[in-house]
Design goal:
- Its EC number is 3.6.1.54.
- It is found in: Cell inner membrane.
- It catalyses: UDP-2-N,3-O-bis[(3R)-3-hydroxytetradecanoyl]-alpha-D-glucosamine + H2O = 2-N,3-O-bis[(3R)-3-hydroxytetradecanoyl]-alpha-D-glucosaminyl 1-phosphate + UMP + 2 H(+).
- This is UDP-2,3-diacylglucosamine hydrolase.
- Its cofactor is Mn(2+).
- This protein is α/β, with parallel strands linked by helices.
- The protein has a single domain, classed as Purple Acid Phosphatase, chain A, domain 2 (4-Layer Sandwich), CATH 3.60.21.10.
- Helices cover 34% and strands 22% of the residues.
- The chain has seven helices and eleven strands.
- The strands form two sheets. The protein has a six-stranded mixed β-sheet. Strands 5-6-7-9-8 form a five-stranded mixed β-sheet, with helices on one face.
- A hairpin with a 2-residue loop joins strand 5 and strand 6.
- It starts with a strand and ends with a strand.
Length: 241
């Protein structure tokens, strides 16, 4: 079985090239029987399963077809789509995973997550993350009319963009101690995540010669995925034909 990992597509109606890249991935790269892990920020924003972004239905149908053909589909929340719920999982034939999940791969155990929880130097973001991951806050938000939720989401996106432009690059990257402590706590020597938009393979994350961290890339006209199978691991960039 192949294990495929993607993150940070940020699907949104304003960017049709993202839809095109994901359709190509689902039609020409993913195969029945694969395990597909979507590690957050698949959507640019998500205000509830009752209000999906326009234009996503063909994507949903392709993911469901892959699931019906024997693939296992998994989803983790990102910092943009943390309100994805069980109704969408039923529609996709997918399973919602906890924000940090230890899995077994052909190459050994691994820990998967979106990765924003590792950016501990950004204290303002971590406070925001704690707020919006609170079940009471989420219930209050989801109880509001769709129009009001859309307005709040637009405001939050604008604030995020403004704040991100003012922050140092290092603050928005993962913290080395957070990475090491997380890997040790979960007893893994492989960590797979997205969020930072800095695709790379990092060694020595726990100590000298110990610990590998694979960062998934964000999508544009091209896409990124990690493939893991019996032959090993490969971080791949592709461009739709």
């Amino acid at each position: 079985m192949r294990h495929l990992f993607i993150a940070d597509l940020h699907l949104q109606p304003e960017r049709p090239e993202l839809f095109r890249a994901f359709r190509y991935f689902l039609d020409d790269i993913a195969r029945p029987g694969d395990a597909l892990y979507m590690l957050g920020d698949i959507f640019e924003y998500w205000i509830g399963d009752d209000a999906p972004l326009p234009g996503l239905e063909p994507i949903f149908q392709r993911v469901r077809a892959l699931s019906d053909a024997g693939s296992r589909i998994y989803f983790q929340h990102g910092n943009r789509d943390f309100l994805v719920g069980s109704a969408l999982m039923v529609q996709l034939g997918a399973e919602l995973l906890p924000e940090a999940q230890r899995i077994e791969l052909p190459t050994g155990a691994a820990l998967i997550m979106h990765g924003d929880q590792l950016c501990t130097d950004d204290s303002a973001y971590q406070q925001f993350r704690t707020q919006v991951r609170n079940p009471e806050w989420q219930q209050s938000f989801l109880s509001q009319p769709i129009e009001q939720r859309e307005a709040i989401a637009r405001q939050m996106r604008q604030q995020s963009q403004q704040q991100g432009a003012m922050k140092a690059e290092a603050i928005m990257d993962v913290n080395a101690d957070a990475v090491r402590n997380t890997m040790l706590a979960h007893r893994v020597e492989l960590l797979i995540h997205g969020h930072t938009h800095r695709p790379n393979i990092h060694q020595n994350q726990i100590g000298s010669g110990q610990g590998e961290r694979i960062v998934l890339g964000d999508w544009s006209e091209s896409g990124w995925y990690l493939r893991v199978d019996e032959s090993g691991r490969e971080l791949i960039r592709f461009t739709p034909e």
